Amino acid sequence: MTHRTTIERKSERELVVTRIFNGPPRLVFEAWTTPALMTQWWAPKSSGVPLLSCEMDVRVGGQYRLAFGHDAASSFAFFGKYLEVDPPSRLVWTNDESEDAAVTTVTFEERDGQTLLVLHELYPSKAALDEAMVGMEDGMPEQFEQLDALLATLGASA
After folding, report:
1. What is the CATH number of the domain that holds 67?
2. For 101-117, how does the pLDDT look when each residue is reduced to its tens digit (9 = 90+)?
3. What is the secondary structure of 43-65 as a DSSP string?
4. 142 domain-assigned
């Protein structure tokens, strides 16, 4: 069964993405907090830009860094720190790669053996959200399809 990713702009500065995943919250949370799993689904394959490295210290005050590109010379990174970590139901982190970056909150809610994931981003301005929206409507659904495929393999081995 496939599920639809919904991307909604809730205000000039807020974005909410929702999706049901075929797996319990503990597995979905694990896929968001384990570097070896994150590297398997986070970068949309169609972008042609692989995730080169994934460093995550998933604890309050811990930091993360996701580097993308084909080699170190041409790479770019997303990085920040975790503000809240409540396994397996909630993660909150900063996105510190630019002054216009958002604070991201992701919740994982049990729904009859599946997980309702709600990703909320709060941007500092309308312009910052406008810029973030470029490519998101294609990229995020693809990422989440990749995550669903990974969860199918994790469920089979759990």
Report:
1. 3.30.530.20
2. 899 999 999 999 999 99
3. S-GGG---EEEEEE--STT-EEE
4. no
